[in-house]
Amino acid sequence: MDPKELLATYALNYLREKKIIGVGTGKTVKKLIEVLSKEENLKKTVLFVASSLDTEIELSKHGFKVISLLSAIQPEIYVDSFDVVTKDGIMIKGGGGALLREKLLTYFSKYRIFIGEFNKLKDSKLIDVPIEVVSIGVSYVKDKLEKMGFAVKIREGSGKMGPIISDNGNAILDVSVKTENLCEFDRMIKTIPSVVETGIFCKELYNKIILANEEGRIEE
Ligand code: 5RP
């Protein structure tokens, strides 16, 4: 059984009756949109808010109505996935580079659920954290972090030269951070000029994490 499909179908229970839904980015969300697209009535009744251009295109392709982030509309519910969740319940997002808009929508949504496979639950001591940085500041920020003892990589596109540029025109750094210091690191790094946001989602940013596996086990 495909756990992404299982999670998407499960998440549908949270979305029924909702009129304004925020959605994340990535393969899990793509599967969710595919599952939602079978619910024809949603195409007439729901306004979606997307956390990336990719998601906006995907929603539009399936005939869903999408409203701009500039509307400042507050989703009744936000659904997304994550790259990693620690045993303390801290999520790392931004594998797809959409972390800023994802955090923006998470912050302004009334209820937030995150869906992912059990194998995203990690117990490692170090985790790679994506950081969105204004492009012109990227070398200063990299130097500063390296002097502080962090291992830092500028994210590059696959098969293409140069750094990845986010939907917001910024670069992404991947920084190796001790798992026990994630939320503290999140606060600290945002004091460095040109750091825009991190992919660290501490507990106050979500209501529920739902996990599933290939055997069909599902847990909230
Ligand atoms: C994108 C994200 C995604 O939620 C994360 O990368 C997981 O993606 P996938 O559903 O493809 O496993 O944070 O910025």
From TrEMBL:
Pfam families: Rib_5-P_isom_A (PF06026). GO terms for cellular component: cytosol. One of its GO terms (molecular function) is ribose-5-phosphate isomerase activity. The keyword Isomerase applies. PANTHER family: RIBOSE-5-PHOSPHATE ISOMERASE. It comes from Saccharolobus shibatae. GO terms for biological process: D-ribose metabolic process; pentose-phosphate shunt, non-oxidative branch. This is Ribose 5-phosphate isomerase A. Its EC number is 5.3.1.6.
